[in-house]
Design brief:
Elements (H helix, E strand, L loop, with lengths): L1 E14 L5 E20 L7 E4 L11 H13 L5 E6 L10 H16 L6 H8 L14 E5 L4 E4 L10 E5 L6 H6 L11 H11 L11 H7 L1 H14 L5 E4 L6 E4 L6 H5 L4 E5 L11
Parallel strand pairs: 3-4
Antiparallel strand pairs: 1-2, 2-4, 2-5, 5-6, 7-9, 7-10, 8-9
Helix pairs in contact: 1-2, 2-3, 6-7
Length: about 280
């Protein structure tokens, strides 16, 4: 099982000299995910990736293949693999579906080859091919800094049974476009460590579940702002908290997983009830 994630809060703390941005975010792994099957390949020259979604590239641009190349480069193992990917997590969603695939691939390849690397090494290496991959090597709840590759395990801030609903419009968000539209002067001034403390004590609220990428995402996709407001209005009587995950375009509803009527009527909207999940060291999700 290859899970995805949500960001319970996301603060952009600085723009770095290399053009990337430093962030401070509380990530949590969720039970929406893809199914992946791995086997050792008899090929001595290439991996084979099969995917049910024809829009997903299966060449070396896919994070799954990048993860296998990284695994071989770091461990010296020369094994190639056969991978089947049954895609369920939408892309361009801010849910880290591709990053989850890469983390699952690193974990699986390592297991199939007799665990030549530690989980700490897999976590460290993963930052070389993507910023969000390392969060999946946490126990499920992680406070992440740097580009997202510096991972600190934290206790789950919410009950794992907390009801949640994900709603995503058909259009995805381009992460580079969202960061390009980011106004650094318009960010929240909230201390991320204070947000981490408050969510652990008081749970989710509008003042805690801050996402500095919402404003630029809503500038790039005004219909996303409208969707958030409609979801807030439709679930207000249930005391929900509504916010965007990552760089979008998924909107998260915390506190209820009933599908609002207007969402149920719209076949173009992706909708999925979800829950937070965790894992034990040495095991996968």
């Amino acid at each position: 099982f290859s899970p995805s994630k949500i960001n319970l809060f996301l603060r952009i703390t600085a723009r770095r000299p290399d053009g990337f941005h430093d962030l401070a975010s509380l990530f949590h792994v969720i039970d929406l995910g893809d199914d992946m099957t791995f086997a050792k390949s008899s090929s001595e020259t290439k991996d084979t990736l099969i995917c049910n979604d024809p829009t997903i590239p299966t060449d070396s641009s896919n994070l799954v293949i990048k993860a296998l190349d990284l695994f071989r480069a770091k461990t010296g193992v020369r094994q190639y693999f056969w991978i089947e990917l049954d895609k369920k997590v939408p892309h361009g969603a801010g849910l880290g579906g591709g990053s989850g695939n890469a983390a699952t691939t690193l974990f699986a390849a390592n297991k199939l080859c007799g665990s030549p690397a530690t989980e700490a090494e897999l976590l460290e290496w993963s930052g070389e091919i993507g910023s969000d991959i390392s969060v999946f090597f946490s126990k499920g709840a992680a406070y992440c800094t740097g580009r997202g590759e510096i991972v600190e395990d934290v206790e789950p801030p919410l009950d794992l049974a907390t009801k949640m609903l994900l709603v995503k419009p058909p259009m995805g968000c381009s992460t580079p476009a969202i960061f390009k539209a980011l106004d650094l002067d318009g960010r929240s001034k909230a201390d991320p460590l204070e947000l981490l403390k408050r969510i652990g004590v008081d749970g989710c609220s509008e003042t805690v579940c801050i996402n500095d990428l919402e404003a630029p995402a809503f500038t790039v996709l005004p219909e996303l702002a409208e969707l958030k407001e409609r979801l807030k209005a439709a679930t207000a009587d249930k005391k929900t908290v509504v916010f965007m995950s990552g760089s979008g375009s998924t909107i998260v509803i915390v506190g209820d997983d009933d599908v609002p009527a207007f969402v149920a009527r719209d076949d173009a909207l992706f909708k999925a009830p979800t829950r937070l999940i965790t894992r034990k060291p040495g095991e996968w999700y």
